[in-house]
Amino acid sequence: MRPFRSENISKPRGTLPFAYPSIEVPLDVEVGCGVGWHPIRYVRENPKRTLVAIEHTRTRFSRFERRIASHDPLPNLHPVHADAVKWITHFLRPATVDRYFFLYPNPRPKPWYSMPFFARVVETLKVGGTVTLATNESFYYVAAKNYFTRVWGLEIVSDRSIAPIEKPRTHFEKKYLSRGESCFDLVVRKS
Ligand SMILES: C[S@@+](CC[C@H](N)C(=O)[O-])C[C@H]1O[C@@H](n2cnc3c(N)ncnc32)[C@H](O)[C@@H]1O
Description:
Blueprint: E1 27-31, H1 37-45, E2 50-55, H2 58-69, E3 77-81, H3 84-91, E4 97-103, H4 118-124, E5 125-135, H5 138-151, E6 154-161, H6 171-178, E7 184-190
Parallel strand pairs: 1-2, 1-4, 2-3, 4-5
Antiparallel strand pairs: 5-7, 6-7
Bound molecules: S-adenosylmethionine (SAM).
């Protein structure tokens, strides 16, 4: 795989630098959060953690913003309208992230796990930090597991199918489960 070259990645336009929470607050990052169901529920259930939730499409990010506005203040949620590759490359320091979430990423044009950029994800993860991946594509799930363990040196924490009766965490999870499709959830850790 080509090495990741951060110098080739431009800064996200119009985005303010990230003000890290204090050191004792765990920092989590969700990549491609869509219309934001998961981030809002997650920060309400985890008031002592901070979540950066990144979405790059204007339409989905606007729906996410409207959803945030309809809730009581969510001080531990940091919504970001940007390309996650640019934002993570420019604003996160090595070994500062506790949990990454990639929930139902688009498998095309290129899966996250096989991009040189994933080296930056691993670099910014703390030792003991985790990456959660959910997908409805079995090929993606199998290939991600291989890449995570063999290329990125991550160890499997849990590896399961999502039962159709589980409460969906995201907009896409709801869509896939309601169609009767299989969904997979993989958690890996940096050891
Ligand atoms: C299939 S949707 C899943 C959305 C949400 N996670 C869910 O499960 O409902 C994938 C999302 O990732 C976003 N996305 C893809 N590449 C991205 C990138 N480089 N930076 C930020 N968001 C990205 C897309 O715009 C889209 O909203």
